[in-house]
Amino acid sequence: MNWVPNIFRRRALYDDLSEEIQLHIEERAEQLMRQGMSAEEAKREARKAFGNRTLLEERSREVWQWPTLESIWGDVRFSLRQMRRSPGLTITAMLTLAFAIGANAVVFGVLNRIILHPLDVPDAKSLYAFETAESQIGHQSYPDYLDFRSRNRSFEDLAAFTISESVLDSGANPFRIFAYETSGNYFDVLGLQPYLGRFFHANDERGPDSAPYVVLTYANWHSHFQGDRGVVGRVVLVNKHPFTVIGVAPPGFEGTLLFFFPDCFVPIVNRSQLDDWNPLTERGTRILFEPFGHLKQGVTRTQALADLSSIGSYLEATYPKEDGHKNFMLVRPGFPNFFARPLRAFVAGLMLLAALILLAACANLGSLFAARAADRSREVALRLALGSSRKRIMRQLLTEALLISLAGGAAGLFVSVLTLRRLSVWQPFPELAIHVPASPDANVYLAALALALISALLF
């Protein structure tokens, strides 16, 4: 560990070493001059006898320095000088990589949000919804949902929701909203914590119209309530009925139906105040999206499906007119399976196309750097003659490629983050609360870094 303090005084050590070498050469030259050589011949012979001064200095420094760190820093400085000498090639390479890495980062951001991590909630791996295998749609009536929730032995609890359109009046200008009408246990099943205030719970439901509460999404709280922390406890009108704002959902949580971003959450038991049509007592009217919940520890998917099938058989026998026997399947919450499969295939195709773009960019850059290597052949030959190893030269060339890749990757990441944020608020249909879930996160940043490192090795 002696090299640690030497790092902070290496310049003085370098100067002392150079001075000692110079004194040694001068002493030898003086000896040769006393033997009858001229001054010029003596100096030349002394330098020749001493050997490669630069190489010997580097090897001597390794005695008191950390050679790897020191040589890497030297490679970085030399690479930066080389990049400044060829600004055209450097800028071309950076822009090419910025485009290729940026395209990959954008597609990966969408893939990450839709396929890899569709719901950013605690213990998402054990969260499942169920739907019928025949239609691949999980719509249920509210009475059926209550039976599934109370009779199943596989889920810790089951939550459900539907969507409605309403008008919210906060005392200023009324505006249209899309609301999640949820079961009282919706937030508890997801394991979420509010950003402000509190959520409603199952014990808030005491019959029809018993829970006039509203939870705002973080985006709606910012846009229509200007981020006012005093909004908790305020009474607002939803379809001209008084509702109390009790909390704000955490940032980034926009419900459990991908592509559809609501403005607020309200208990479904108050549906009659939100809509003139209230089918909560109609067993044959299927208004709820896929019920979902966490599987109990130790329960397999096969056991859960058998449990759901037995409940389905009971409902068929008890309510033959409203319920027919169904085969169930477990899916990840987010969107129905009939829509998920083609969407996954489409996004995977985009990812493959983006990867091919990156490979083509690396191939083009490889050709550019091969042509540049021919121009630098004299430089490489000179460095070899001065004692530099082939490994050291290869490492320096890789350092130069790595710096260009990191710079291009940083530029591509910057553009991709702006694109993803713009994409996440883009509404293809202004009359609907439909957005593309594509907000960047740490996974996107790590993917961009990995692509930059891979690109440096490829080209």
Structure overview:
- The chain has 459 residues and is α+β, with helices and mostly antiparallel strands.
- The protein contains 15 helices and 10 strands.
- The protein has helices at residues 3-7, 10-34, 39-50, 53-61, 67-85, 87-116, 142-151, 186-190, 218-225, 271-274, 301-318, 337-375, 377-385, 390-425, 442-458; strands at 127-132, 161-169, 175-182, 196-197, 213-216, 235-238, 241-248, 264-267, 292-294, 328-331.
- The strands form 2 sheets. A 6-stranded mixed β-barrel has the order 2-3-8-5-7-6. It has a 3-stranded antiparallel sheet with strand order 9-1-10, covered by helices on one side.
- It starts with a helix and ends with a helix.
Features of this protein?
459 residues, alpha+beta, 3 domains, 6-stranded mixed beta barrel, 3-stranded antiparallel sheet, 54% helix
